[in-house]
TrEMBL record:
Keyword RNA-binding in record: no
Organism: Ceratopteris richardii
Family: Belongs to the guanylate kinase family.
Name under which the protein is recorded: Guanylate kinase 1
Keyword Nucleotide-binding: yes
Occurrences of domain Guanylate kinase-like (ranges): 118-300
Catalytic activity, reaction form: GMP + ATP = GDP + ADP
E.C. number(s) listed in UniProt: 2.7.4.8
Classification via PROSITE patterns: GUANYLATE_KINASE_1, GUANYLATE_KINASE_2
One annotated GO molecular function: GMP kinase activity
Highest taxon of the lineage: Eukaryota
Length: 395
């Protein structure tokens, strides 16, 4: 409990049960992204535990409670179209579970996406099979399309491995606490070290509008399968255990004891790779070029020219820097009226359908749908469109 949030203006306050959820505004002359909750029964302020990567600070945005479980935050001055919709989950199953775990009030951020994002891809297979080689090639050929989920690990960095690029190299005690705090999507003991995918790692790729690639072991794949992340699962197998051993030795990054441990674990992993309740696809990495072509085919890239691939989300400029507008919810449709979209552009009417949204924290909320976007000049009766709509009983 505190005496209340720092004073501000151009924020939003949304009613949720007996609580008021305050977000954003100009605070200390800067756009803020903090969340404070006022309990109207006890008349006291609560500072919640905020999970997920938050949006950058904003003011002049609007906020609406959807289905008594999440608050849609829309726009904000200077906020680009691709960052305009965020959800603050206040009572979803994920938030309820985390509240129980952490024994405190929890809210969680999830970025809103129009349409479908391609599913994240989990690449799995025994150590030395060539996962990293295939993923590096994919990232090099399609840099604007794919982003790598940088895992945390307690193992020592290899020669040329960079912290924050290949892995976040971490102390076990730090990682164990972070896992307890719910910051990891999955984690596992692999070949004697702790590895894990943080929620932030997956979110950071998705927030860049890219398709996330996870290179994780079979225990991790099992855990991700059970999570809210709707991913495609691909298992990569070697042509033989002898060739796997040859590749591991040829790589020259492990000592004899570690090689033996990895080869021993490979046998169980190869059995698990055949489990069709987890893996959608099974590839044998014999000839590298052939395996890479097959991987591209599975990902729908076989007919795509790597040089022509652009980033996602290119046609939503109608939400660019929308602020000072008002928004109302009717039957799952968000009606956005007015607002300074751009000093040179007149106010508009925008209708966004939230009825089909899927996903949510930890991760993004997708399948938002644009129903209508009209400039003032395109609306009936020019300046009086709100009055006219009231008279007609609909917008
Ligand atoms: N099809 C292939 N034929 C021969 N060598 C290969 C093939 N694919 C990969 N390699 C080589 O095998 C070694 C292991 O590959 P890589 O490091 O990509 O494996 P990995 O599956 O990512 O292993 P880890 O899980 O331990 O990170 C590398 O030296 C790589 O050049
Ligand atoms: N469950 C997870 N497994 C992971 C993760 N990151 C990597 N891995 C797997 O560990 C082994 C060994 O990797 P190495 O870099 O030490 O050779 C390999 O199978 C990886 O796929 C993770 O975040 N979670």
């Amino acid at each position: 409990m505190t005496g209340g949030p720092v004073s501000r203006c151009h924020h939003t306050v949304t009613t949720f049960g007996n609580k008021l959820v305050l977000f954003g505004g100009i605070r200390d002359s800067k756009p803020s992204n903090d969340v404070c909750i006022f309990d109207t029964t006890s008349r006291s302020w609560i500072v919640p535990e905020v999970l997920g990567s938050p949006p950058i600070g904003r003011h002049g945005h609007s906020a609406l409670l959807l289905n008594e479980e999440r608050i849609l935050m829309l726009g904000g001055q200077g906020i680009p179209f691709h960052d305009a919709v965020w959800f603050l989950e206040v009572d979803t199953p994920y938030v309820r579970k985390q509240s129980q775990l952490l024994n405190t009030t929890v809210v969680a951020w999830s970025k809103g996406i129009f349409g479908n994002l391609p599913r994240p891809v989990v690449i799995c297979g025994p150590s030395g099979v060539g996962k990293g080689t295939l993923i590096n090639r994919l990232m090099k050929d399609f840099p604007s399309m794919f982003g790598f989920s940088v895992s945390h690990t307690t193992r020592q960095p290899r020669h040329l491995e960079r912290n924050g690029v290949h892995y976040h190299f971490t102390e076990r005690s730090w990682m164990e606490s972070a896992i307890q705090e719910g910051k990891f999507l999955e984690s596992a003991d692999v070949h004697g070290n702790l590895y894990g995918t943080s929620i932030a790692a997956v979110e950071s790729v998705a927030n860049d509008g890219k398709r996330c690639i996870l290179d994780i072991d079979v225990q991790g794949a099992r855990a991700v399968k059970k999570s809210a992340l709707d991913a495609a699962f691909i298992f990569i197998a070697p042509p033989s255990l002898e060739q796997l051993e040859g590749r591991l030795r040829g790589r020259g990054t492990e000592n004899e004891e570690q090689i033996q441990k990895r080869l021993k674990n490979a046998k169980a992993e190869l059995e698990c790779g055949r489990d069709s309740s987890i893996f959608n696809h099974y590839l044998i990495n014999d000839d590298l070029d052939e395996c890479y072509s097959e991987l591209k085919r599975l990902l729908g890239l076989d007919l795509v020219d790597a040089n022509e691939v652009q980033g996602a989300n290119s046609n939503q400029a109608w939400l660019d820097s929308i602020h000072g507008h008002s928004a109302a919810l009717v039957g799952g449709n968000v009606f956005v009226i007015g607002g300074d979209i751009d000093p040179n552009v007149e106010p508009a009417l925008i209708i966004i359908d939230t009825n089909c949204i899927v996903g949510g924290a930890p991760g993004q909320t997708t399948r938002l749908r644009l129903v209508l976007h009209k400039h003032r000049s395109e609306l009936p009766n020019g300046n009086h469109f709100v009055k006219t709509s009231k008279e007609n009983g609909h917008l």
